[in-house]
Amino acid sequence: MNTIEHFQCENIDLLMEIFDHKVSLKEVYTQKGPASSDYISLSIKLNLLIKEYFEEKTLNLISMSKDELIEVWKQKGFKHLDTIEASQKFDELILKYQKLKHID
Fold this sequence. Notes:
Shape: elongated
């Protein structure tokens, strides 16, 4: 799957839910203030939605990086500098994803 196809797979429902929660959060803040239980609940839910979004995007990046690594490996061989660089990029993304999951 190429980069354009990955962008077409954007989770519009999740983005709309995040947007709606941000709008609702602003309204509750204005009406009830930041100490209200409604505001706190919406804030927690929004935070969880944003984490879900970042996790999804990170997994997409990992998938794209894996595809790139395989393609470079097929074209240039296992020991080529470009293959090693693609492998290092792939490893970095996996480490970042593991750190992201560890924070939860």
